[in-house]
Amino acid sequence: MDPLIYRYPSRRSVVYGQRGMVCTSQPLAAQAGLEILKQGGNAVDAAIATAIAMTVMEPVSCGVGGDAFALVWMKNKLYGLNASGPAPKGVSAEELRAAGNETVPLRGWAPVTVPGQPSGWIKLSRRFGKLPFAVLFGPAIRYAREGHPVAPVISWQWSNQYRLFSKFTDPCFAHWGETFAPKDRAPLAGEIWGSPALARTLEELAQSECESFYRGPLAAKIDAFSRQTGGWLRAEDLAEYHAQWVEPISVRYKGYDVWEIPPNGHGLVVLMALNILRNDTFAYRDNAEAYHRQIEAMKLAFADGQQYIADPASMSQSVESLLAPSYADARRRTIADTAAMPQAGDPSSGGTIYLCTADGDGNMVSYIQSNYKGFGSGVVIPDTGIALHDRGANFNLTPTHPNCLAPGKKPYHTIIPGFLSKNGNAVGPFGVMGAFMQPQGQAQVVMNTVDYHMNPQEALDAPRWQWVGGMNIEVERGFPYTITEELVRKGHTIRVAPDSLSFGRGQIIWRNDQGVLMGATDPRADGSVAAW
To answer: Which residue, 197, 286, 343, 444, shows the most beta carbons closer than 10 Å to its own?
Structure first.
């Protein structure tokens, strides 16, 4: 049998729970979070435990050496955490340009920035957690040491990356194969994979409260391997890093408040697109004009995002100016009846996993962490199981651009947790993972929920579109054919994608008026909802 072939349509129902819920793209990781809730942990404890477990369950998409963002609803207030790291102090855009690079390479040491994820875990735990930090590592350590059966979609992604990394010969990639392909191939669906080295690393992180990663033995190992194989990352870069609490940003969309993490993340793109569309009326979904306006608004928002989003210290435009209603209205007026090439406006003149959790006390977490591209940079620190991400690939090398690579600077970041509230009350966390699909997927989920009154599972199931540059739009196979014909007549170039993985994989938890939790997980992944 083939675990990736399903000949007949099936339906996932909304999952209900009352005392707690965990949604993510790997069923065993969701159960790990539920296990923590049943031990007396809260939504934050469950989110951290699930995130740690996902470094074992889905190492293609996330690992200890990645970044994370979180939105935490705790006691009727929303908090934001930015656990993304800066470029090393020794990094050199000039050196990369001199070597003939027009962009920052995707693999190797060049795109490695300081990983923020472990710092994010301990920051969340110390401020909001109930259980001892070390307890949260229990399920992940067990699965890393004993192994776990690899899920189908993850195995398919893993095999794609094996074909890539098996060709690399640079010494910095020397330990990828022994860690992630010990049988000289990717693990098959249902095959047991584990990593004793990763288990030992997780034990060290648990015991040191992640200090070892930044100011201890693990930091020394990262520093030594970087020096040995030509990297820029140093112990001093790690030692100076701490995840940061930030104030979430929002827009009002048709009676709901949509919340995101501020830049350097590109949740701002979601808010700009919804702000442009806030006065449009979308009576029903399968309407070419509605799709056209949504696509054009997203293109405009992305054009502004790619022009202005960077490390906050380098941005030439403020978040407030980009979200100003008058600016959104000016951008809205540029949308014509036909498709247009997106151009950035001027406001001054006018490889990822997502999870969400909730507990019986009303607390909720929207959380996302990532390696960026599959297995990140491909750099694996020997005898640790730590794969370092390649988030620095989102820098550019244009000296005058606010997102140009520079020492100590954070890059434009694609991972974005979302949150929905209404009249000061939490509706719940939501997210759609998948690099530059994330703002597009999030906006579509919000519109499916608010404009089209879909339940959370339907909101995730609905066929998606994505803008991929220029006039080019990709749609899923379930997208209405008649709508694609009308969009072509409006000037869009439409391609039906052969698979759905690039359209994102999301999770949602809403809380209804009776306080009952309603969970859903994306059919494009292996995920499940664990409820209590």
So the answer is: 444
Cα separation, 44 vs 50, whole angstroms: 10
Helix axes 288-308, 325-333, angle to 10 degrees: 120
Please, are residues 471 and 491 in contact by the beta-carbon 8 Å criterion?
A: yes
CB 82 within 8 A of CB 123: no
Question: What pLDDT shows up at residue 283?
Answer: 67
Strands of 101-186, DSSP E: 148-149
Higher-pLDDT residue of 87, 341: 87
Structure confidence by residue, pLDDT tens digits, 323-350: 999 999 999 999 999 999 888 877 754 4
Return the pLDDT at 350. 44
Q: In what order do the strands lie in the sheet with 77-83?
A: 244-246, 77-83, 67-74, 364-370, 352-359, 20-24, 528-531
φ and ψ of 246, to 5 deg: -130, 160
β-bridge mates for residue 253, sequence order: 256
Burial profile 401-435: b = 16 or more Cβ within 10 angstroms, e = fewer: bbbbbbeebbbbbbbbbbbbbeeeebbbbbbbbbb
Strand order across the 465-469 sheet = 465-469, 472-475, 493-496
Buried b (16+ CB within 10 A) or exposed e, 78-112: bbbbbbbbbbbeebbbeebeeeeeeebebbbbbbb
Distance, in Å, from the CA atom of 105 to the CA atom of 109, rounded to the nearest integer, reads 9
The alpha carbon torsion through 358, 359, 364, 365 (nearest 10 deg) reads: -60
Which residues, other chains included, contact 499 with Cβ-Cβ below 8 Å and sequence gap of 6+? none
pLDDT digit string, tens, across residues 260-274:
999 999 999 999 999
* pLDDT tens digit sequence for 364-384: 999 999 999 999 999 999 999
Strand partners, 420: 258, 428
Angle between helices 43-57 and 196-208 (to 10 degrees): 150
Please answer whether residues 80 and 262 qualify as being in contact, where contact means their C-beta atoms are separated by less than 8 angstroms: yes
Q: What six digits make up the tokens of 135?
A: 């307890």
Residues 6+ apart with CB under 8 A from 492: 292, 295, 339, 471, 472, 473
Q: In this predicted structure, what is the pLDDT of residue 348?
A: 59
Residues tagged active-site: 352
User: Contact at 8 Å (CB) between 406 and 91?
Assistant: yes
Encoding tokens for residue 432?
């759609």
| Amino acid, res. 89 | K
3-state secondary structure 206-220: HHHCCHHHHHCHHHH
Instruction: Kindly report which listed range (107-116, 157-166, 493-502) carries the lowest average pLDDT score.
Output: 493-502
